[in-house]
Every structure is written in C-alpha cells, then in structure tokens.
Amino acid sequence: MDGELNQLKYTDIHNDVVRSIVETGPNYYIALITAFAFTLICFFFPWFYQLYYGIGAAGMNHPGVWGTYLASFIFWIGLSHSGTLLSCVLHITNSSWRKAMYRSAEAMTLFSLVVAAIMVMVHVGRPWFIHWAAPYPNQMEMWPNFRSPLLFDVMAITTYLTGSTIFIYMGSIPDFAAVRDRTQGWRNTMYSLMSLGWRGTDTEWHRLHWAYTFLAVLIIPLAVSVHSIVSWDFAMSIVPALHQTIFAPYFVVGAIYSGTAGIVTVMFVLRKFMDFGQYITELHFDNLGKLLLVLSLLWTYINIVEVFTGFYSGASGEIEALNYRLFGFYAPLYWEMIAFCAIAPLLCAFKSFRTSFVPMLVLSIAINIGMYTERFLIVATSLSRQYLPDAWGLYVPSAVEISILLGTFALFTTLFLLFVKVFPSVSMYEVKETMESPKKSTPAASEGSPA
Amino acid sequence: MTSFVVGLFGDPESALAAAGSIQTANLGTPELMSPVPMEGVEEVLGEKKSVIKRFSLFGAIFGGVSGFLLAAITAVLYAHPTGGRPIITFPPYLIITYELTILFGIVFTVIGFFVSARLPNGLWTAWWKQDENRPYVPEAAVDKFAVSVSCASNENVQQAETILRTAGAEEVRDLTEEN
Predict the structure, then answer these.
(1) May I ask the CATH class of domain B2-49+131-177?
(2) Nearest-angstrom CA–CA distance, A58 and A316
(3) What is the pTM of this model?
C-alpha cells in the first residue's frame, strides 16, 4: 500500500474524497431509491402491519417467544462490533493500514447499532412504551429493575451508540473542514457547522490526538462489555443450552468475527463502486483475511467447548438441547453454520485467497449468513427444548418476520448510502499521514510546478 | 489594528523552521496550520499540555458515582425484596456503574476537547462564518503548511514577512483585521 500511496499527492486524496461526496451519478440514485423502496416494502410496511394487527402477526408463540427479531438484534449488535472496536485497537497500536478503511467501518458500527435498536422496538410489540425502559421520574412510580440484564442492555447499548457516534464524528472534524472549503451552498453551510470552525492548528491537532486516544481507550472495554451483556440476556436464564458461563466470550468473539466479515463486504463495495481502489488495497484484504482466520479458529474452539461441556455435564436437559441442535429439526441450519463459519474461512490460510477480492467478498457474506444462523439457533433451538417435554415446540418465522429480517439489510444499505454522501468515507488526513510528506522543493523543481 | 501575517509552505520542515525563527525574534507565538498533524512541533514551540485527561477522569468518576447512586437509590426508594436478598445488590449495580463510568468519561472527554481546542470557532459570532480573529487559509486543509503570527505594528509585519520569506514561504499573506 505504501508504494502505491507514495505515488500520490495530498491533493489526489483530497480530490478523490471530495469527488466521492459532491459528484453523484445516476447509479447512486438508482441504488438509493431501490434500497429505500425495499426498506419501505420489506421493513416498514410489515412492521406497521404487525403494529396494526398485534404481535400475533409474528410467528412467536409459546414456547418460541423469542424469534428472528431477537436473532436480528444480536446479529446487528454483533456486526457493529468490529467497526469501532477494531478502529480503536488499531489506533492505539498505531497500525497504519487502518487509516484508509476505519471511517467506513465505524459507520458500519453506527448503522448496525441503529438497526439493532430498532429491532428491539419491533420485538417488544408496543414500541410506544419503549421509554419505560429508561429511568425517569413518572406518575406511575414505575422504575426499571437495575438487576435485570435487559436493563444492562439498555445502558450498554446507549453508551456504545453514544460513544461510537462521538468517535466517528470527532475523527471526521478535520475532513469536514477540508470538504467545507471545496463546497458551496447548503453543503458549505452543513460542513461549516459540522467542522465547528476547525483550522488545523497545531493546538487543535494536539487536542484531537489526545481526545481521540482517550475515546479509543474508553470504547475498547465498552465494546467488550456490550456483547457480554447481550449474552447475559440469555445466559442469566436457566434455559438449557443458554445458561452457560462461556456465553460472554462466545458472543464477543462471534461479534468481532461477523463484524470483521462485514468490514470485508463494505470495503469491497467502497473499492468497487466508489473508486477507492488506490486506498483500499490488497493489503487491507490480506490483513482482514488473517484476522478472519484467527477469529474463525477461536469461534470454532468455543463451539467445540460448548458442545463438549454440555455432553460432559451429564445433565439430561443440556444433553437433550445439544442433541436437538446437532441432530434435530434445526440440524441442517447448524451444519450450514459450521460449514460457513468454521470450515470455509480456512481458505484464508492461503495468501492468494486473502488477496482475491471477489472470493473474499463471497466468504464474508457466507460468514455473516452463518453468524445469523448461529444467533437464530441460540434463540430458537434453546426455547424449543426446555426441561419438560410437554413444553417442547417448534418455532418457524412468519412471512412478516422474514420480510422484516430482509428489510433490516435494506435499511442498513439505505443508511450507508446516505453516509457516503455526507461523510468522507475515507479519512483524508489519516491517509495523508501514511503518505510521504512533501519535501522541500528545489528552485528548479518549483519553477516547473503548477501554481 | 491587529495584523495576521501568514506564510504558506510546501513542506512541514520549512514551516517548522519559520515558526522557530518567529519565536526566536520575539514576534509572538506563531500558530501552525497543516493538513495533517505535524511532528516536531513541541520541540520548536515548546511542550503542549492539555486538560482533556482531567475532564475524562472527572467524567468517569462522576459517571461511576451517578450510576451506582441511580441504581442504589432507586432500589431503596422503590424497594422490591427478592427472597430475603439485600435491597442494594452490588454485582448487578457494578455493571450500571461501569457503563455510566464509560458514558460520562466519553462525554466529558469531548467537552474537554472542545474547551481546550477552543471549538466551536466562530459559530457564536456569525453562525457558519469563521471567527475573523483567528486566521485561516483553506490551502492548509489540502497540501500547504501555514505559519501565522499576530503583529501589533507595521514594523512587526515587515519583520515577520521577511522571516517567512527567508525560511522559504511560497506565499506570504497579510490578513489585517480592524478591531
């Protein structure tokens, strides 16, 4: 990457990123309108239908009272994990390869969190009472139970959403200022406000460096806590196959794993459709491929441990739940998950695979299909096989639930398409930092240079 | 009348050298503007200290105390005894404490950044216009390195311009502002 970047000048990256914001072709509008139309048709219409007819429109019923809505919630929270977390870790470890891709990865975090939060509202059935989860004085003298993992979730996700929003915004201030100077009309007004009058002085850079580093240090443990807490929504229950101590690290590893795969998908799209091939290179895919390989091995290990401890416990409830997951009604989904998340990523052991863009895209999508399946299996198979056989039952999602699940992807795509036209999707100043700084020009050289 | 003399340089080393010369000539503390963070600024202009860490620490402590008190006082005011267990239960409340420690740590870090970087700049004077008492050159956001110095007299302006040109400034601008 360095070799390619060193052939570029500061003005090249500046022009490329500003162009990606201000120049909009018809393909972009077609993509945006399509994504928005899918969001309306697949997400909002079914949701309104469910609001009108009641939560019975979803396939959730006893014993499967948790369904794809919660599976989607975990999936999107998980997808949010690698963006900001990876960005923070790589910032603190001063990894220069992060700089071209982190802005989009952080945006992925932000929009995944937004989608996840909306999924909670879809799940609860009566979202107009969602504010009851917040601690505020009210005439009902109703206060949330601070001992409940569900309230831990509210606090953790609120904090993570706030932290991620602030983190991406703070890192973008210098770039907003750079875009401000190149735009006119409403765009100029918008970027002037968003850049807060940034001038790029030595004091401002110094303060930004410290603030950004402190934020990174604060957000890393926060990100780990968020998915641990999401896992406790399940692990704190006494349902067989859910009541497990390994759930917190299992969820955290799974979240980073699916998030990293999500970054590969987003990087491919940016490279292909936003013409950022000079900045998002084979090096990024190579490094992300190595990370995917390590995470897949960790994830596989935790899965093996989960199965082994379940069988070794000798508890009939645990063994029944595991048997059901591995060989029961949902078994094809389980083995699909193993194929996509444990076996297919082994291809990342080969450099030729890691540096091939289309195969990496296919793998990243396969991993996230597998990871969605994992979340569905956690929710569906566990509730289907609890202690008493007369409480056993199947959960099959309804058309409304499947439509809303597909709609979440359209919603995410819509938000991301809006993002690339507002935020510089590649960090200009950080990519410039990785480039060779301009050298003092000799008189002969300066004579020939453009004004 | 306050004049700001700004020199534009094509490379960071020349800009730093010019800033050092301005300071040595006692023309005031120069300000550097650049498209990327510059290395070696503190060696030339002296060590910079920021209060951000104090804001972060205060925010974290404030958030932690608030988080625990929120959960504990709620439990006491709206008691919900469960199986003879304590009303104030530390393990779950530590999670609330932890989350609010981080939340307020983040929020106060941002406040500390705004205070110490003196941002927003100019919003209060004319909404989306830059504060005209703080010089700005758009080229410094792209590929130029600018050195700015505030001069109280014409003599100082001329002296600053000479230093900047000698250091290799590609262009020197006189941004004069009537106060």
Answers:
(1) alpha beta
(2) 31
(3) 0.90
